[in-house]
Amino acid sequence: TPGSSPRNLLDMDTFSKSDPVVVLFVQVSGSNEWKEFGRTEVIDNTLNPDFVRKFVLDYYFEEKQNLRFDVPPGSHSALFGAQDFLGQAFVALGEVIGSQRGRLERPLTGVPGKRCGTILLLAEELSNCRDIVTMQLCANKLDKKDFFGKSDPFLVFYRSNEDGTFTICHKTEVVKNTLNPVWQPFTIPVRALCNGDYDRTVKIDVYDWDRDGSHDFIGEFATSYRELSRAQSQFTVYEVLNPRKKCKKKKYVNSGTVTLLSFSVESEFTFVDYIRGGTQLNFTVAIDFTASNGLPSQPTSLHYVSPYQLSAYALALKAVGEIIQDYDSDKLFPAYGFGAKVPPDGKISHQFPLNNNMENPSCVGIEGVLESYLQSLRTVQLYGPTNFAPVINQVAGTAAQVTDGSQYHVLLIITDGVISDMLQTKEAIVTASSLPMSIIIVGVGPAEFEAMEELDGDEVRLSSRGRYAERDIVQFVPFRDYVDDSGNHVQSMARLAKDVLAEIPEQLLSYMKTRDIKPRRADP
Length: 524
What we know:
By secondary structure, this protein is of the alpha+beta class.
């Protein structure tokens, strides 16, 4: 809930001070449209107002939530002329939350040639988002989907959004070869499950796992947080229904049942608690410079930059980086390339700095990373093989130096996908899973990405030489799933960022929890 306090406003009233009000506008995701969200009260006759009325917003780490604060000189009329305008400020909600102690001061602009004063924004988290749920489910008599064996069932949970769409919020593990699976208990924040709205629909799909990723749909059922919570006193049984079967078969009853065996709630620290307590997110980028991408000068190349459009690599980098940078105070991002022959002697390298500076591979801002990436395309020779392990181990080495919870690392790897050092990469990820870091992999181009799905570890926990990953720290998405025919890159890249970043808060919390690290108290 951001509160606001403008300071040293312009004086527009000839006979007295101004009577300011703050109007909050929220940008509609993926468009240039701004919608009025709300207004503070009017405070008469002051240039340093402290407003009482708060704005309550839903916060999503994984989205760029752009806000605009307009300061007209008072709302004695709903309409005000440009000549009365006291200024405005643009800010992303993530910037307010990522700033020290959740306080951000911004200059007001918009009146040419005049200093308009400043606006101070304060953000605090509402407490109903802190609850965390542990539940366990089992199923009975699910439909048999596999030709030779029984099914390999897993559940996918979705929360419903305001606009009627659904967002995936949890997948259970796969239980192999049974029609009566019992899944492990799992833990999920109430916010992720229903956004704090206890009556909002929670949809659950039941799938039969297939190795090639084309999982078979068994059926679905719907519930809500309130309904699930009744299981604290009794078992709840849900019928699993397959709408297509229901339409086709007159005698169809159901495709099995799912029983909620247990459900408990406890309060937890949140992602925002750690960010406000001073935890910094450190963002590192690694870009695939292997020859399979195609010659950068050719329009068919995945690295081709036309005068009209960024490459898939640049689009993915911008989409993810522009959100994460709000949580990184120095805005310095180490950026590497891998799989190229590097000047002056043409040696193959799997972690060369894009800015050509071995001592300091950091670029200034996301724009700096993009500049260095385009510069590297002109100076290195695309080659091979595609090795991930060196750059993962590089970031893991940095992450291992500070493990007290004050630093958390996010590595973005953008690749065309055919990985050469799978065994070493699995070993590197299993080792990294005990460190304060997460890995995002964006696959560009037409390749099959089965290896990436294995690294993702959502369905089967990643292991290497008998050691299992302590936490799931990898999130993979194929870029092609987000490119829509309309050519609206803003919207499709917002969706890509949302899906790859959605798991970061939970991954950070799982690290803090396993190490019993509590957030530092923010100074009041």
